[in-house]
Amino acid sequence: MTQSITNDGITTLYRPQNPVPLVLDSPHSGRIYPEDFRYACPHRILQKAEDNHVETLFDTAPDYGASLLCALFPRTYIDVNRAEDDIDPDVLDDHDRVHWPHPINPTSRSHAGIGLIRRIVKPGIAVYDRKLSIAEIRHRVERYYTPYHTQLETLIEESHYRFGQVWHINCHSMPKGRGISHVLAYGTRSALPDFVLGDRDGTSCALEFTHMIRDFLKDKGYSVAINNPYRGVELVRRYSNPATGRHSLQLEINKGLYWDETEQEKSKNYNRLKIDIENMIQYCATYIAANLTDMAAD
What we know:
This protein has helices spanning 43-47, 54-57, 94-99, 108-111, 134-163, 180-186, 207-219, 234-239, 270-297, and strands at residues 3-7, 11-15, 22-26, 67-71, 120-122, 125-126, 166-174, 195-198, 224-226, 246-254, 259-260, 265-266. With 298 residues, it is of the alpha/beta class. The chain has one domain (3-297): Aminopeptidase (3-Layer(aba) Sandwich), CATH 3.40.630.40. The strands form three sheets. An eight-stranded mixed β-sheet has the order 1-2-4-3-7-10-8-9, sandwiched between helices. Helix 7 runs antiparallel to helix 9. The two termini are 33 Å apart.
């Protein structure tokens, strides 16, 4: 029996009855918009930034021994897949920019308007018609960002302590074409494959695991790329260390496989993809069980 734990509008955690060291998380599929968001752009445009229903695509994970952590708040409010100091100075008013209490280190994502606090939802459309205060941003960090990271880190470390190894899959979706995140950050737009696996150029996950998932998906008839154009960001970087048995892989699903971006609803192919993802999770759990058996025999 799966145990479901909801944390006050922040996360939902699904724990399996008979766990294996497999942890999945969906950080960008949240649809509960906090009252203090006070965005100025149309809500329907903000919704297009969601990883629509990724959490439901993976919701059978506990049936195969995996834990599943899902954010309930939207990425456009605060993005847990960014470093805490990846703050765009342009979202702060002039006074607070000078008095921000900690160093900020904006990356190319912040400069493109898609850092920790999103500034642009699509080219020419800003999220806000105002600047944000230090108090607003700190509230979002303390109330949403930190609890999400704490839960994910706890799941990973508990699994590693119990089994000696842990595999983490960070689950996302990407627009059918290269969407706002890629266009703003990289300046190009072209067709994407069905799946992109990101292991930060082989540094966050054993290649055997990355290639195992790639080959499984290809056998199902999907096109798969590795680290192009998505290598994995903060949630993969922060909790991975293959040398100590902590493997973390980002998985991006092309929305064209399951989502009607015009109607903003599941397409007729949703159920087929969900079955294939369930089979992939089961395949991963079998792989992990075999690896643990081999490790015990050494």
